[in-house]
# Entry
Amino acid sequence: MEKLTRFGCILLCLIACQWVTAGDNISSQYYQQCKNGVGRACFDIGNTLLTNGDQNKAIIYFTQSCKAGNSLGCASKHILHHHHNPFKLNHEKAVAKFRAMCDKHLTNGCAHLAFKYHVGQGVKQDFEQAAHFYQMACDSQMARACSYLGVLKQHGLGVQQNTSDALALFKQGCEGGSKRGCQFLKMQEHHQ
# Structure
């Protein structure tokens, strides 16, 4: 029997997770569903690949998920594209630097720290901490952080699920200049 792992799904973003086989042996059902345009299946594959350390392949599946209209895939794709670096980084040191920046009320440090908690780079993945630091950055008018906090609220990750608050955060992000906020807002309005 294959070992099964329940992943706490990503980003700004990841809803009630399903069981996925660990390692490279992702269920063929997920690949077939993804191939058929099921955005959530593509997202789950991307999240599994990311958890196993394969950012390059994860971005491919997050992109497919986004094209299928899945906001989680869009958020995850953007975060990885924005923060992906082909060189080996010391994520633990980066977390310490971002925490020091955030402690000094430097908004960008809080946003980057939120991302680290969001995807579990240099720290254990913790959506509550991600939401906390996104909120700090959002309170300082960082539109992108508001947008990603909205994704967490939309899916109840680290915070109580609240679609109305999520929409307000997407709108705040969009009006503040976050392209992702506008995209998430448009996707949410389209699905209502």
Observations:
- The first strand starts at residue 4 and ends at 6.
- Confidence is low (pLDDT under 50) at residues 1-24.
- Strands lie at 4-6, 19-21.
- The longest helix spans residues 39-51.
